[in-house]
Amino acid sequence: MATRPTPVAKKRGSARRSLRSLGTIAVVAGLVAAVGIPAYGALSLPEDAKTIQEVAEAGAQSLIVASEVETEGLQRDSYAATTPEEIEKKKAAEAAAARAKMVGSTASVNVDLSLVGPGTGPARWPLAALTRIGDGFMSRGGAHYGVDLIAPGGTPIFAATDGVVRISQESYYGYGVAIVIDGVINGQKVSTLYSHMTYGTRTVGVGAQVQAGQVIGLVGQTGRAFGNHLHFETKINGSLVDGLGFLRANGG
Fold first, then answer.
1. Alpha helix ranges (H) inside the chain
2. CA distance 43 to 167
3. Residues 246 and 183 sit within 8 Å (Cβ to Cβ)
4. Is residue 204 part of a domain?
5. Of the candidates 243, 7, 2, 5, the residue with the CA atom closest to the CA atom of residue 125
6. In this predicted model, which residue has the larger pLDDT, 222 or 44?
7. Which of 19, 139, 208, 217 would be a feasible disulfide site paired with 144, CB 3.0-4.6 Å?
8. 29 domain-assigned
9. In whole angstroms, what separates CA 117 from the centre of its chain?
10. CATH number for the domain that contains residue 217
11. How many structural domains compose the chain?
12. Measured distance CA(186)–CA(149) in Å, rounded
């Protein structure tokens, strides 16, 4: 019985095909590695990278806010509990400061701003003590429109009424150093004039709000005056009246 020859040729062909398949797989694998490895490297985290939880734990004791606003400390003296007495003291201090500021632009002679004219009525006497009365209202043949209150030079002069300063000059015609204050009493407009004061003693300027009894200057003899005295004129609703009678009727 004859023996069949071994099919060597077929085995060699199968081996070649297997080798080609393995080579193809190797090439594909190489391409995948060439493309994938750089991408993986690009996505890899640095050694010091931290998770969100780690960052939160590390900064748990601090807070950073992006803002251009600057902080300002709260000063204890920026607020205070006040009583009615403290409020009155504060008002008095502010009024004194305002008068002192006004003095700085008018008076060149020292004037005690703490002085207050006597009385409690709607009008106050312009001098604390009346020693003597000189020429009265409409004297000198009707040419004298006020009343002369005699007092030593340097005696404090007080505003007779609340009001606003309309005139405040170092040289006001024959009146010399003079001040005019416009106020209202019992619904009537009252204007009072104070003249012949000492140079440099006016404590209020035009537009200043004054209170009855507030010191406004010192007695002198400037302008057409002979001897130290205060020439005091009064108008009610624009008409001249006897200043002495007005003070006696309204001064407290």
1. 8-43, 52-58, 84-105, 139-142, 243-250
2. 88
3. no
4. yes
5. 243
6. 222
7. 139
8. no
9. 31
10. 2.70.70.10
11. 1
12. 25
Considering the domain boundaries, does residue 192 fall inside one?
yes
Give the integer Cα–Cα distance in Å for 117 and 240. Answer: 24
Tokens 């001098």 map to which residue? 127
8 Å CB contact between 125 and 116:
no
- Take residue 53 and report the two structure tokens written for it: 């939880």
Question: What's the pLDDT tens digit per position in 60-83?
Answer: 444 444 444 444 444 444 445 578
**Residue 150: CB partners within 8 Å, gap ≥ 6?**
131, 132, 133, 134, 227, 228, 229
Evaluate if residue 174 carries a pLDDT over 60.
Answer: yes
CB 220 within 8 A of CB 172: no
What is the per-residue DSSP string for 47-66? TT---HHHHHHHTTT-----
Rounded Cα gap, residues 238 and 193, in angstroms: 13
**Tokens linked to 42:** 């690009």
**Of the candidates 103, 113, 96, the residue with the CA atom closest to the CA atom of residue 205:** 103
More confident of the two residues 160 and 10: 160
Q: 84 lies in a domain?
A: no
Identify the pLDDT of residue 83. Answer: 84
SS3 for 234? strand
Q: Report pLDDT for 136.
A: 84
Instruction: Name the residue type at position 218.
Output: L
Instruction: Provide the residue range defining the domain that includes 188.
Output: 90-250
Examine the pLDDT at 192 and tell me if it is beyond 70: yes
Over residues 78-129, the pLDDT tens digits come to: 445 578 877 877 776 676 555 555 444 478 888 888 899 888 889 999 999 8
